[in-house]
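HOLO CASE FILE
Compound: glycinamide ribonucleotide
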Amino acid sequence: MSEKPRLRIGVLGSGKGSTFAAIADARATGRLPVEISLVLSDVADAGILEQARRRGIPAQHIAPGDYRTKLDENAEAAFIETLRVARVDLIVLAGFMRILKGDFLRAFTNRVINIHPSLLPSFTGLAAWKQALEYGVKITGCTVHLVDQGIDTGRILGQSAVPVLPEDSPDSLRHRIQETEQTLYPEILRQIALGEIKLG
Ligand code: GAR
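Model generated. Tokens follow.
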């Protein structure tokens, strides 16, 4: 009997790639039944590309164009085409710091997920751990959600709580949230791959 083909994921990131590394390690140890088809970054020297190459996963930089917070038209088309050629079923944002809207989301309706370092709907946007600390909440955390046209507004797929400690600095809190993300994201991906979470 032929096996069901595995979910093919494409990972997009702009930073160090610690979240991606946790996903790749979960896959390598058999805990996560997906194929990581490729990793794309808008940042030429992003650690995430190096993390992928070290593991033998195709990794590519695509120049984002002149905007600071989004992709220009050519870059957006290049991202879409590259992900299509790789026959990716699901796009996993792991620290991708540009807003994806319009054509990109229409090309992959209900097929783009993100991890955000707060308990949404609180603290959307940048440096969410710092916003939580400044607000004075006693519990924050991280959220995996579907990406829609808004900023950090799509359907919530999973969350983990992280206590804010009296002695926390922005860095210590960010670090603990990131450790939690590294457990939550592979787990939610596993549930999607097994059909336990439906994306619609
Ligand atoms: C992660 O903490 C992720 O939650 C955050 O960027 C970090 C990436 O770190 N993403 C966002 O803030 C998206 N709005 P990494 O490159 O080491 O995985």
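CASE NOTES: The first helix runs from residue 18 to 28. The helical segments are 18-28, 47-54, 73-85, 102-107, 128-135, 170-193.
CLOSED: yes
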